[in-house]
From TrEMBL, chain A:
Name the UniProt record assigns to this protein: RNA polymerase
Pfam families associated with the record: Sigma70_r4
Gene3D superfamilies for this protein: Winged helix-like DNA-binding domain superfamily/Winged helix DNA-binding domain (1.10.10.10)
Residue ranges, annotated region (Disordered): 145-170
Species the sequence originates in: Streptomyces albipurpureus
InterPro entries recorded: RNA_pol_sigma70_r4 (IPR007630), RNA_pol_sigma_r3/r4-like (IPR013324), WH-like_DNA-bd_sf (IPR036388)
Residues in RNA polymerase sigma-70 region domain copies: 94-141
TrEMBL record, chain B:
Record key words, sorted: Membrane, Transmembrane, Transmembrane helix
Name of the protein in question: Uncharacterized protein
Native source species: Streptomyces albipurpureus
Highest taxon above the source species: Bacteria
Membrane-crossing segments per the record: 43-65
Amino acid sequence: MSERRSALADRRAREFEAFVTGAAGRLLHAATLLTAETPDANPRAQRLLTAALAQTYVEWDRLRGEDPYNRTRQELATRFARVSWRRQRTDGGVLAQLTPQERLVVVLRLYEQVAEEQTAALMGLPVERVRTVCRRSVAALCATRRSRPSGGPLRTAGGGPAQGSSEPGP
Amino acid sequence: MTRPSRMEIEVRRMLETRPAPIPAGLSLRAAARGARLLRRRRVVRGSGWLLLVALVLVFTVWMAVAQPWDMPPAKTTPPVDDW
């Protein structure tokens, strides 16, 4: 019994390590975008990812063909949604000007390219709302980028979404 | 699926920045934490089963001793002996 269990644990550890080696780069990037930290100082993103990966490890034997990457991303998103509502302060990063919810939508929709319906289901929002938030955030990011083409530290005065969300040009 | 707009493509490019370096031992730390969670879950499940078995055992013994399906002797009507 315990021999079988330890063999199973060995296999799980090996498979898990291979998975992390392959997926950690992209997942950590996503986590760093979510927490709006810089790539070199991202302790919160690292904590978030470690916790999500630990949960994937727990469920490893019961994944039954489900993609562990998707599972970890989902865990990352729900964990971020759970802890981020009481934290508004950001330390930089590309998405620092957005609220946590807007960052989550942008990262899932545009960085991870998760379908609108899946994003909505994951966040517990109507699809329409996801579409609206995404469009608004994209407009805000583009507006900031245009007004500050050097790509320096992004920080809007109000911190809220940009007002001018009209599509530019024809 | 609608075609991504020009602004969406621009934002996608913005998101593909320099990746963060992977911290050393990330996999090991996550695995250790996961293993701890698994162990804790196993202990909780084990003690749950133990509790259930103990309850069933106590109930069975009580049934055997008390035999609650036996009707208690009637106390309201005095026995009639002399017809």
